[in-house]
Amino acid sequence: MRKDQELQLTIGALSDRTGVAPSAIRFYESKGLLESTRSSGGQRRYARSDVRRVSFILIAQRLGFPLKSIAESLASLHGGRTPTKRDWETLSRKFHVEIEERIRGLTALRDRLSSCIGCGCLSLKSCHIYNPEDVAEELGTGPRFLMGDEPKAR
Predict the structure, then answer these.
(1) Is the dihedral of CA 47, 51, 52, 54 positive or negative?
(2) What is the pLDDT of residues 50-77, one digit of tens each?
(3) What is the DSSP letter of 137?
(4) Cys-Cys with 49: which of 3, 12, 82, 150 at CB 3.0–4.6 Å?
(5) Domain locations in the chain?
């Protein structure tokens, strides 16, 4: 066996190592999240660094990131080389910003949900103060105040 082949994993080995079904690995590949080479017999082979890539995909999915966003982020790690620690740090900083935004949104949702979803409306007693004559409609559709808009000062 050639040295470069020793560094590659079969789809079964990648599946065993990550806990992801081979069908999901093929799906990720079809969506551009992973790349494989082919053995002389036509079998898929993955780089050992793809263990980290698949783990990142799993974590990002659990955090609610869509595959398109994950694929765009992972695209910066292509180039035929194993991603370095610096590559992963750069990628994680991008996700850190998005995660912080989600935390702020979830905190606002938690804090306002029982009183005002602005406006959609659960609290008619507060609504006449914060959203008289449905002025939130001018800001667009949906629960505007939960989406980050603020009631206009009176």
Answers:
(1) positive
(2) 998 898 899 889 888 899 988 888 887 7
(3) G
(4) 82
(5) 3-112, 113-154
